[in-house]
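Progress note, sequence design subtask.
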């Protein structure tokens, strides 16, 4: 199976530690990594899907949602989900991709290809990650991002797929566009980056909040505040691997097998029993992504 591996070392620079962290203690109840990029390599030790699943299953993470962020990645996600019972797919154009494609005059054509991929298989559970990112794309890219996000929202509603939202420095516009175009039956705020106030606004719209390794970072008190107000039946967990490895491995390659480190930190922060939180996350993920798989 060909991969679309790309780009991580350019993000962090060549001096970072790219050794893989050790496997943590297994979780008492299995949970799902609901957002992973198995097609993106990190350093010299890329984990193919089979190895990523094998390691993750050892520590209580036997299922993964593979997310495609561009046309090659979306096609790879569908192919991979078809090959592994434990993996389902999400397909979309990442908000940072939309302005690049629009500059080539191909955005509507690319969105049409995403629709074909989203409708191609029951293994595709999600339209995402889509959304808005005003951190990496300047004002000149806002119109293309919003055009793309609106199309993805409508597609998720049309096909009854889960909408997976990427939101960076765009909280108000994310909410405004959901209010304008409609909130799909199942919506996930991926790698939740807001505070308690924004969390409440998302919860009011029926969204699930998905927490990544960022919830463990020292400077992420606002995200922990959001976790504190999130009810147990609306919490998910993810890696966004190979990005955002949790403390104490921040900056090193992330993988689904590190989910237990994040979940333990979440349980401690929320003051709930680890087994209770795991059971909630497992049930929530099935509900958020249209039923159990694998």
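Output:
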């Amino acid at each position: 199976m060909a991969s679309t591996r790309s780009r991580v070392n350019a993000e962090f620079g060549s001096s970072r530690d790219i050794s893989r962290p050790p496997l943590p203690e297994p979780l008492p109840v299995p949970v799902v990594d609901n957002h992973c990029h198995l097609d993106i390599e990190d350093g010299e030790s890329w984990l193919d899907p089979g190895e990523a699943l094998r390691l993750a299953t050892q520590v209580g993470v036997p299922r993964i949602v593979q997310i495609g962020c561009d046309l090659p990645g979306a096609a790879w996600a569908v192919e991979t989900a078809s090959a592994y019972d434990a993996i389902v797919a999400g397909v979309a154009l990442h908000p940072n991709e939309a302005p690049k494609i629009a500059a080539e005059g191909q955005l509507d054509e690319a969105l049409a290809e995403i629709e074909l991929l989203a409708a191609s298989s029951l293994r595709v559970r999600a339209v995402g990650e889509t959304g808005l990112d005003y951190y990496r794309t300047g004002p000149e890219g806002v119109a293309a991002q919003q055009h793309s996000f609106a199309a993805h929202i409508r597609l998720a509603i049309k096909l009854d797929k889960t909408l997976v939202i990427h939101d960076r420095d765009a909280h108000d516009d994310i909410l405004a566009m959901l209010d304008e175009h409609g909130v799909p039956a199942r919506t996930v705020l991926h790698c939740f980056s807001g505070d308690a106030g924004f969390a409440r606004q998302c919860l009011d719209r029926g969204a699930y909040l998905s927490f990544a390794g960022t919830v463990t970072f020292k400077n992420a008190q606002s995200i922990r505040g959001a976790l504190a107000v999130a009810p147990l039946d609306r919490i998910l967990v993810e890696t966004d691997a190979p990005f955002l490895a949790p403390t104490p491995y921040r900056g090193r390659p992330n993988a689904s097998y590190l989910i237990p480190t994040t979940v333990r930190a979440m349980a401690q922060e929320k003051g709930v029993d680890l087994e209770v939180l795991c059971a909630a996350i497992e049930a929530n993920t099935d509900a958020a992504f249209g039923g159990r798989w694998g």
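Confidence is low (pLDDT under 50) at residues 7-12. Work on this subtask will continue into the next period as scheduled.
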